[in-house]
## 1
Amino acid sequence: MVARDSAAAKSAERELVITRVFDAPPRLVFKAWTEPERLIRWWGPQGFTMPACEMDVRPGGAFRFRMRGPDGTDHRLQGVYREIVEPERLVCTWTWVDAEGKPGHETLLTVHFAEQGGKTKLTLHQAIFESVTARDGHQDGWASSLDRLAAHLPG
C-alpha cells in the first residue's frame, strides 16, 4: 500500500492544473481553441507566432502546430483529439516533435469551459509529465498563452 501511495503522489506532482476566468461566454472561448484562424492569434507564450496550424477538430482528428519563438527557433507539437463536447470540454493528446519529426513524451490535455455569470471558467489539466521540471516549463508557457488568450477575447 505504501508503494502505491508513493507512486500516486509522484504522479500527482507531474500533473498541471490551471484555472482562469475569461470575460467571454464559453462558446467564444471554445471557438478560440477550435478554430485555426482564432487560435493562431493567441497560441504560444508571449513573443511566439504560429506559422503553421493544421486542425481536424473531431474525435480521432489530429492537429499539428509549428510555433516560432522570438529567437527564430521552431517548436513543433502534435496530438489527436479524443473528446470534443462543444462548448464544454476538449480532450487531446499532446506531444512535442523534434526537427526530424520524432515525437517525444505524450501527455493528455483536458480543457473544461464552464459558464460562470456570463464569463468562462477555464480549467486546464495536463498529465503526466516526464518530470516536475517539464511540468513547470509548461506551466510558464500556458500562463503566458492564457494571458494572450484573455487579450484576444472580446471583453
## 2
Amino acid sequence: MRLEMTALLAAATLVGFGGTVSAHHSFAMFDQEHPIELVGTVKEFKFTSPHTFILLQVKGADGADVVWNLEGGAPSGLVRDGWTGKTLKPGDEVQLKVDPLRSGAPGGSWNPSKAKFKDGNPILVTH
C-alpha cells in the first residue's frame, strides 16, 4: 500500500509540473510568420542557461542605434552545433533572420542556422 501511495504521489507531482515546463518553452510572444532580417554589431553574447541571448546594436530607421535583445536556444543545443561562449564577440558584425516580438519592442528569437557574418561568411565553418 505504501509503495502504491508513493507512486501515486510521484505521478501527481509530474502531472502538476508538466504544464509549467511546457509553458516555459512557449515562443508565442514571437511572430514566427513574419521574420525580419537584422544587420548589426554584437554588444554582448550571453551563453547562459536556460537560453542564450545576443544583444545586437542595429541602426534604426531614424539612424539612431537600437539594441535588440534576441533570445536563442539552450547552450547545450548550440554546443551540439559547434557553438561556444566565445563564438560571437563584442564588435562582430552579423546578419540574423529573427522572429520579432509581437509587441513591437526591439527583440525576438534567433536560430544559429539563420545567422551569418555581415560579409555573408558562415559563423561556423563545418567540415
## 3
Amino acid sequence: MNIFNDHKKLYLTAGLLFLMLTIFTVILPALQNQKNNAPLPGVEPLSGDVMEGKLIYIGEGCVGCHSQQVRNIEMDKMFGSRPGIAADYAHITRTSFWQNTATLMGTERTGPDLTDIGNRQPSKDWHLMHLYNPRSVVKQSIMPSYAWLFETKENPTKADVVVNVPAEFRNGQTGKVIATKKALQLLAYIQSLKQAPLPTAIKPMDFLYKETAEELGGASTTTASKPGAAADPELLQGKTLYTANCQSCHQFNGEGLAGAFPSLKGSKVVTGDNLQLYVDIIMNGYDANDEYGVMAAVGKNMKFNEKQVAAIINYERSSWGNKGKKVSAEEVKKIMDSIKDK
C-alpha cells in the first residue's frame, strides 16, 4: 500500500484515526455524562463568602476527618434523606486556574458526614461554639479547636458577632468572644451544605441492609431515661429523635449550656400547659433573649410530622425528672395546622 511508503499520508491517516477514536470514545461519552449528571434543579452557585469558606475548609484539612457522601446503606441514613448521586457533585469546579478540583467527598469519618449538615444542624450559635471549642457542645469530641478564627473584645460593637462560650471553655480569658470574618465565612460554607431534593420524576436509590442496621441499632436505642421506658416504643422514638436533632444543643441530660442553650430540665415550656408555644418552638424555632442563642426551625427544616413532634415532647416531658402531661399526635396536628404558615 502506497500509504506506508509516504510518511506524510501515514502520519495524517494515523492522526485522523486517533482524533476520531478520541471523539467517539472520550469526548462524546464525557459530554453525555455531563448532560445526564447536570447539577440538580435549585442548586445555586456558591456566593463569595461561601466560596471563601470552602477554601478555608480545604485549607484547614477538614476533609481529613469529615466526608461529604451519603452511601446507599442504612447506617448512612442519619446523614441525608437519600444516597448521594453523581449530580450532587456536578457543580464542583476547579479551585482556581492553578489548582485542580478539591475532592471533598472524603475517605474517612473521624467526625460525622457533612452532606446535609446545613439542614441537620442549622444553628449558627452551635457551629460557632463548636469551632471555638468542640468540647463545649460535644463533650466527647476529639476535633481540634479553631480558636484562632476568633478574637476577644472587652467592648464589642453592634456589628460584631458575639459567641456565648461558657466560662469553663474560655481558659481564663475575659471579655467577649467575637467571630472573625474567616469564622463567619467557614460558617457560611458549612450552613450551605444541604442535600438538594430530587426532581419528582426521579426516584432515589434505596438504602440497603436495613435489617442489619436495625439489629445493630437496636441495642443502642433500648436504653431509656427511666426504668420501664424501654417497653414504650413512642419514648424510644422520641429519644432517637431527640438524640439526632436536639441533644447537640440541649445535651444528653437536658441541662443545656449556661449562656448558650437553655435547659429543658424543669423548664416551664416543657412541663407547662402552653402546648401551642411548645410545638411552635420545635417547628419554627425561637429567639428567647440575649442570654441564649437563637434556636433554628428544627421541625420545619427536618420536615417533622405530628407523630414525631409528639414523640419528642413526650420524651422530654418524661425525662430528667420532668413530669409533664402526655400529648397525642392529634393534639399536635391541630396546632401544626394552625402555625404552618408562620
